[in-house]
Amino acid sequence: MKNFMLVADLVPKLDPTDYVGFTFFVGCMAMMAASAFFFLSLSQFDKKWRTSVLVSGLITFIAAVHYFYMRDYWASHMESPTFFRYVDWVLTVPLMCLEFYLILKVAGAKQSLLWRMIGFSIIMLVTGYLGEAVYRDNAAFWGFVSGVAYFVIVYDIWLGAAAKLAKEAGGDILAAHKILCWFVLVGWSIYPLGYMLGTDGWYSGLHALNLNIDVVYNIADAINKIGFGLVIYTLAVKSSK
Length: 241
Description:
mainly alpha, single chain, 10 helices, disordered N terminus, 79% helix
């Protein structure tokens, strides 16, 4: 009983009305559950699809670990865990770009496409961190640079080299590619909204919406990371029959 009390003392207490903390806890468990699902399903797929599903599991697993720390950081300090969040993104977003390359390899995708997407994703994240955590007085400028990098990725997958490869592949691969494209266009666009809610610039009028940036980020993370993985899982199931 004494040991149980000691462990309980180490667990941060959350207010029942702390909806931000609630989304951190739900996000952590959702990511972990998704990871277990993807990892345990690997054996049912053809070898050529196992890497894609494995990467999906890694994305949600990395996020689950970071959410474990972020939820405790929030509970202890009641501050947005910006540092942990960007560490999570700088690891998981390039892996999400890798998913595009892996499913398009059958159509002849080259590594240059992969490195281009990863490069712009890192630029997007590093400049976003600089604006949100380091040079907050110039947040609008760094947000603009981050946005340019984001739209380069959007162009590549919707109209550029990745889009052409998907059309050549056709069938289930084209269908999966289009769904992933919508995740990037719509799902990822929530992150710039969170950025503008948490910084000052020409967009400061958005603060009137009174939305918490962590709630926005947490919901977006769960939808995008788990959703990405489910699209890959569905493609792997169809292609392994």
